[in-house]
Amino acid sequence: MEEKLLQIKNTYLEKVAKAKNLKDLDEIFLALFGKNGEITLATKEFPNLPKDQLPKVAPLLAQIKKELETVIEARREGIREEGYRLLENEKLDLEGGKPLDKKGHLHVFTTFEKEVVELFEKLGFQRFDAPHIDTDEFNFGLLNIPENHPARDLWDTMYIDSEKFGIQPGKMLLRTHTSNSQVRIMRENKLPIRMMNIGRCFRYENLDARHEHTFEQFEIVYVDKNLSMANLQYLSEYFLRTIFGKDIKVRMRPKYYPFVEPGVGVDGECIFCEGKGCKICGFAGWLELAGAGMIHPTVLRNGGVDPEEYSGIAWGFGPSRILMLKYGIDDIRTFLSGDLSKLLKYEEEKS
Ligand code: DAH
Q1: N or C, which end of the chain is more exposed by having fewer CB within 10 Å?
Q2: Residue 30 exposure: Cα atoms within 13 Å on the Cβ side
Q3: Distance between Cα 222 and ligand 1 center (Å)
């Protein structure tokens, strides 16, 4: 029993010395003297002790109890004093402090949007806006993705179902991509067409560093006679080289998108390792930067364009992804977080 008491004493003296705040000390006090505290329980064992031990153990316990109580109280006092000292040193500035170094500025999305739009204007593309709240027809059906077709699973969609407003379930949605502009662009403009559409898109995502429910997309619709994959390659190279300011290599890989045939993933040579392979590109040496292809004949027809006479290029990418790469932003949620400490940093790097 004596040994046990001495062990309790030593353990708790050490804990008290390490306590950082009053809460830690309260916890220590309870662990010793609370209903099931170690000292309380030790006292309860007294009636079971052999008679001759009691005269030794009882004064020892009383002494240890006193010592621990004194040490705890002294530490409490110490912590309070440290707190006062900190408060004294903390000055309350009622004069407003110095003005912020940085004034407000445009969001990185907005600056980038301007940059991209100007770039494509030079090639004769005009801006076109499509609705953010749209029908499943423009977002899917007319893009060769019929109702109940498994390809719809490629886009986790937020539908607007409100019988109160006479909206049938599954018919209205938040657009999942800027491709909802494709058929509208063809229907509303005279051929040949060079149009671009940039703006918000929405998906029912599981949020993490690479997935956000609200994000940006950029889309090109180019319809003319005799267009080919060569024009697509040129557009991709023109865009990526201007944005990354380097002579980066660009390649196309076959990829399935229901509204283009052939469809491709457009890859840029990894700007971090210059193609050698690194963590960021998953040791592939390439980063997927855009989706594109020759507009599917069915989609051209849906837009009122004769696929025998005209061909079309559709090309789209996510500005968020490109900006993340360009400025080394490691979490897509930063963009809409309002965290100026981060957003200002990227803006500084840019200028
Ligand atoms: N809309 C596609 C998506 O959100 C991206 C895309 C792929 C756009 C191919 C295109 C295209 O114009 O041709 O995943």
Answers
A1: C
A2: 6
A3: 14
- How close is the Cα of 5 to the center of ligand 1, in Å? 73
Burial of 300 (0-12, 13-18, 19+ CB in 10 A): buried
Tens digit of each residue's pLDDT (9 = 90 or more) over 279-297: 878 899 998 889 999 999 9
Q: CA 143 to CA 134: how far, in whole Å?
A: 13
pLDDT tens for 157-216 read 999 988 888 888 888 999 999 999 999 999 999 999 999 999 999 999 888 888 899 999
Q: What is the pLDDT of the chain when averaged over all its residues?
A: 89
To the nearest 10°, report the CA torsion of 163, 139, 106, 344: 90
Q: Could you read off the pLDDT of 226-236 as tens digits, one per residue?
A: 999 999 999 99
Closest C-alpha to ligand 1, atom 7: 291
Those residues whose C-beta lies under 8 Å from the C-beta of residue 237, and which sit 6 or more positions away, are: 250
User: Minimal CA–CA distance to 194: which of 320, 317, 315, 319?
Assistant: 315
Closest protein CA for atom 13 of ligand 1 = 292
Q: CA angle 70-73-76, nearest 5°?
A: 150
Distance of alpha carbon 237 from alpha carbon 231, whole angstroms: 10
Report whether pLDDT(130) > 70: yes
Q: In terms of C-beta distances under 8 Å and separation of at least 24 residues, what long-range contacts does 39-47 make, across chains too?
A: 39/8, 39/64, 39/65, 39/68, 42/1, 42/4, 42/5, 42/8, 45/1
